[in-house]
Specification:
Two copies of one chain form a homodimer. Chain A is of the alpha/beta class. Chain A folds into two domains: 2-116, NAD(P)-binding Rossmann-like Domain (Rossmann fold, 3-Layer(aba) Sandwich), CATH 3.40.50; 121-208, Alpha-Beta Plaits. Helix content of chain A is 35%, strand content 27%. Chain A has nine helices and eleven strands. In chain A, the strands form two sheets. Chain A has a six-stranded parallel sheet with strand order 3-2-1-4-5-6, sandwiched between helices. In chain A, strands 7-8-11-9-10 form a five-stranded antiparallel sheet. In chain A, β5 (94-97), α5 and β6 form a beta-alpha-beta unit. The longest helix of chain A is centred in the middle third of the chain and has 14 residues, at 118-131. Chain A starts with a strand and ends in a 5-residue tail after the last helix. At the A-B interface, α1, α6, β7, β8 and β9 of A face α1, α6, β7, β8 and β9 of B. Bound molecules: adenosine-5'-triphosphate (2 copies). Residues 6-12, 30-32, 35, 49-52, 71-75, 78, 99 of chain B line the site of one adenosine-5'-triphosphate. The site of one adenosine-5'-triphosphate has 22 residues of chain B, from α1.
Chain lengths: 213, 213
C-alpha cells in the first residue's frame, strides 16, 4: 500500500508512523522541516512541502498513491487548498482530518471522501459511556450497529442467556461475556450469567443504549 | 450523572455538549471566558476557572461529581496540576486527555485512571484500515477483541458460511453481513455469501488482521 500523508501534526505523524509499522509504503510531508526530520526514520520517504503549491504536489506524483491523507489542522485555508489541488490533479479518493464541524462541512463540499474528526469521535464515545449507568465501553461501528460492554441488567444474574430474555427485551445480541478477565465469545443460550460478568452486546445504537442497570 | 469537564478545547467542548445532550448534568469550566460563554447554553452550568488554583477547584465541590474529565491540552503543566489538585482533594477516578505519548505517561504516573488520546486512537484505526487490503472498517474493542468489516476472502463468494470455513481458517466469527445496505445480524451457518457482501467479523486483533483478500 502506497500512502501519502500531508501534514504531520499529532494525528498525521501518529498515522504515518503506524501505517509504516503495519507495512505501508509511507511518504510523509509537511511544511515544517523539524516535523519532517522527526518522522523520517520511521517512514519510506519524508519531504518538506507546501501543499498549497500545486507544482510541488505534482512532483510527488499523487496519482501513484493508493491512499492520500490530508491532516493539516489549524490552517484551514491550507487544508482546503491541499484538497482542492489534489482534486484538480484528478485524485479520486481523499481522506481529510477536520478540526471543527464547519471545517468538516467545507471539506465535504470540496470533495473530501472521508472526513476524520478525532476529538469529536472520542468525545462521542466517552459521553455515551459516562451518561449510561453500567456502560463500560461503547463503540458505534456503523450508523446501524453499536457494540458495548455493559454490566448485566439487575435481574439476570444467575439466569441462562435464554431465560434472561435479553434479546427479546432489548433487541440486542450478547456476542461475548467477560468473566474474570477471560472472554467467552458467542456464548450459547444455556450459558449462565455470573455475578461480576460483563456482557458484550451488539445491536442498533438506539437499542444498545437502553441496556442499563 | 453529574459530570465535571475541565478544559473546553475541541475535545472538552464536544464532550460537554454531548454528555449534556445524553442527559448528563454537566458543569463545564475553562480559564478562557469566551469558551465558557460559548458552551453555556448547552450545559447545566459553565464557570471561568483556573484549574491550577486549588481553592477555586474546592469551590466546585469536586467530590459531588460522578465523573471528572480533565481535557486541558497544550498547557501540560496546567493539565498535570489539575489532576494532582484533584487527587489531593481525594478524587478517586479521573479521566484525562493526553496530547502526546509522554503526556499520557505523566498522567498515568500522577494517578489519572483513564487516559484518552483521540488523535492516536483515530490514527490507529485509519492505519489498520488503509494498510489491510479489503478492510473497510476496524475497531479494537478490547486488547483481545476487534471488530472489522472486510470484503470476503477471494474463494468464499457463493459458499455458505459453514462451507467457507472462515471460522476454522481464520479463527474469527462472522457476526453480521452487510448486503445491499442492509445488515443481517448473526447469520446462520447456511447463509450463502453473495458477491458484494461485506462481512462483519470479530475475533482477536491478530486474527482479524489476517482476514484479507
Ligand atoms: N501548506 C502546508 N503544507 C504542508 N503542511 C502544512 C501546511 N500548513 C500546515 N501544515 C502542517 O500541518 C500540520 C498539522 O497542523 P496543525 O498542527 O495545525 O493541526 P492540528 O489539527 O492541530 O493537528 P493535530 O490535532 O493532529 O495535532 C502541521 O505540522 C503543519 O506544519
Ligand atoms: N489552568 C487552566 N484551567 C482551566 N482551563 C485551562 C487551563 N489551562 C488551559 N485551559 C484550557 O484548556 C483548554 C484545552 O486546551 P488546548 O486547546 O490547549 O488543548 P488541546 O489538547 O489542543 O485541545 P483539543 O485537541 O481538544 O482542541 C483550552 O480551552 C484552555 O483555555
Amino acid at each position: 500500500m502506497k500512502i501519502l500523508v500531508i501534514g504531520l501534526g499529532r494525528f498525521g505523524k501518529s498515522f504515518a508512523i503506524k501505517a509504516a509499522r503495519y507495512g505501508g509504503e509511507v511518504v510523509a510531508v509537511d511544511i515544517d522541516e523539524k516535523l519532517v526530520e522527526d518522522v523520517e526514520p520511521f517512514v519510506t520517504d519524508a519531504k518538506i512541502l507546501d501543499a498549497t503549491d500545486m507544482n510541488a504536489l505534482k512532483e510527488l506524483d499523487p496519482a501513484s498513491f493508493d491512499h492520500i491523507v490530508v491532516s493539516i489542522g489549524e490552517n484551514l485555508t491550507a487544508s482546503i487548498l491541499a484538497v482542492v489541488n489534489l482534486k484538480e490533479l484528478g485524485i479520486e479518493h481523499i481522506i481529510a482530518k477536520a478540526n471543527s464541524e464547519i471545517h468538516a462541512k467545507v471539506l465535504e463540499r470540496i470533495g473530501a471522501d472521508e472526513i476524520i474528526y478525532p476529538e469529536d469521535e472520542s468525545a462521542e464515545r466517552l459521553a455515551m459511556k459516562l451518561t449510561h449507568k453500567g456502560m463500560l465501553e461503547y463503540f458505534e461501528i456503523f450508523k446501524d450497529l453499536s457494540v458495548a460492554e455493559v454490566e448485566p441488567p439487575a435481574d439476570v444474574t444467575g439466569k441462562s442467556l435464554k431465560d434472561s430474555r435479553i434479546r427479546n427485551r432489548y433487541n440486542v445480541y450478547v456476542i461475548a461475556i467477560r468473566r474474570n478477565g477471560e472472554l467467552l465469545t458467542l456464548p450459547g443460550p444455556d450459558e449462565v450469567i455470573h455475578e461480576n460478568d460483563t456482557l458484550v452486546i451488539m445491536g442498533r445504537p438506539e437499542d444498545v443504549e437502553k441496556v442499563r442497570r
